[in-house]
Backbone:
């Protein structure tokens, strides 16, 4: 929940930013984005959309009204994203929050 709040706070107050959160597995990426989606709807009264830049069929992205995007990626996709960034194809902002699995659900 804390990671969802931090990602949403940054995205909300930095229009046009890109926030990428890499989780160990796909299920955790989905859980993270579900938390962000619920925060947007219930606390801010906003219905986020899927980011069309993320590609068709990708349900792991949210586009906010201010143009910010939040992506939740499993570790396997996170490696490909990091390699693309290292090769010079960098988005304007990358914020990664990585937590080692300690048995907790956050």
Residues:
């Amino acid at each position: 929940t804390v990671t969802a709040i931090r990602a949403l706070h940054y995205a909300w107050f930095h229009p046009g930013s890109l926030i990428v959160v890499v989780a160990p597995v796909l299920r955790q990426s989905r859980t993270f984005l579900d938390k962000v989606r619920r925060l947007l709807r219930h606390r801010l009264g906003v219905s986020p959309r899927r980011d069309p830049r993320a590609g068709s069929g990708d349900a792991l992205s949210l586009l906010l009204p201010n143009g910010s995007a939040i992506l939740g990626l499993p570790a396997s996709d996170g490696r490909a994203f990091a390699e693309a960034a290292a090769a010079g194809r960098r988005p304007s902002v990358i914020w990664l929050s990585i937590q080692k699995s300690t048995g907790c659900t956050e």
